[in-house]
Design brief:
284 residues; Immunoglobulin-like; 5 helices; alpha+beta
């Protein structure tokens, strides 16, 4: 016996399916909306926890994090920049990253753990910065490191103090539209040997080819040679393989009419150089 379908029955079945889908979609929309509202409330709690926490617990500095951050934003090259508070949930760690940042998402960062009711600075710890992938890098391309001619890690037995140092020779291109009349280039070497040992060494101000001044400006499109060497650290670490190692190259520049720019323009991987250091200098 052949089953016959009427148009009306089919139409009613389709309508029923549409109605069920609409009800389900409405339920999901309401659920998502309520979930988002709940998340925003929790984010607000994380923000308030961070803002009201003491900036330096146990010290004579009585500033809260909010007071300290706003004071930092009013200083130097930050003073003409607009900042805002941002909260991001990190599901992997069940924590919140609270930041006070500018339009390029550059600023200061803290970890808020609502379960433990704790606040920890991310900006002040290389381990925390690695954990949350916070970097000082600028990605606008206004100043570019290029034409690397020399880069190595070496033992400096005759330096003061003696130890392991990183050296770099390269060029930096002024890719901005500004004639720079004041410039400073420096480096920061970071070597992570584990949770309990992080080496943090500055590099002496880099030597730029030609003194930059109002008489000798660093013109747009022009490249200047630099030479950087970091302050040596104890050579006992030559025998240990680091978990991570990198060197940031920083610039601070300005022109005569108010343009100011600062930040890291390059990150160099130094880990492999340190791992092979013992092989390069076995008798030292």
């Amino acid at each position: 016996m052949t089953t016959l379908w009427s148009g009306k029955m089919k139409s009613q079945s389709v309508k029923a399916c549409y109605l069920l889908a609409a009800v389900s979609l409405t339920f999901l929309t309401v659920s998502c909306s309520r979930g988002n509202e709940a998340l925003e409330l929790v984010k607000k709690s994380a923000l308030e926890l961070v803002k009201k926490s003491p900036y330096q617990p146990g010290s004579e500095n009585t500033q809260t994090v909010a007071e300290w951050a706003q004071a930092q934003a009013a200083e130097g090259t930050n003073k003409n920049v607009e900042y805002k508070w941002v909260v991001e949930y990190k599901q992997k760690y069940q924590t919140y990253v609270v930041s006070y940042v500018d339009i390029d998402e550059r600023g200061w960062f803290w970890e808020a753990d609502l379960k433990k009711n704790t606040v920890r600075s991310i900006t002040d710890s290389w381990l925390m910065k690695r954990k949350y992938e916070v970097s000082p890098m600028r990605h606008d391309g206004k100043f570019l490191l290029e034409n690397v001619s020399h880069e190595r890690v070496d033992l400096k037995d005759n330096s003061h103090p003696p130890g392991i140092a990183y050296a770099l020779q390269a060029e930096i291109k002024n890719n901005s539209d500004h004639r720079i009349t004041s410039a400073r280039v420096s480096a920061k070497l970071v070597v992570i040997y584990g949770e309990s040992k992080v080496i943090d060494q500055n590099g002496d101000d880099a030597l730029l080819s030609g003194r930059i001044s109002t008489e000798n400006p660093w013109k747009p499109g022009e490249s200047r040679k630099i030479s950087i060497e970091t302050i040596p650290y104890d050579k006992v670490y030559r025998d240990y393989a680091p978990e991570d190692a990198f060197c940031y190259v920083f610039v601070i520049v300005s022109d005569p009419i108010g343009f100011e720019y600062s930040g890291a323009i390059a990150q160099r991987n130094v880990k492999d150089m340190l791992i092979h250091l013992k092989e390069l200098s076995p008798d030292r």
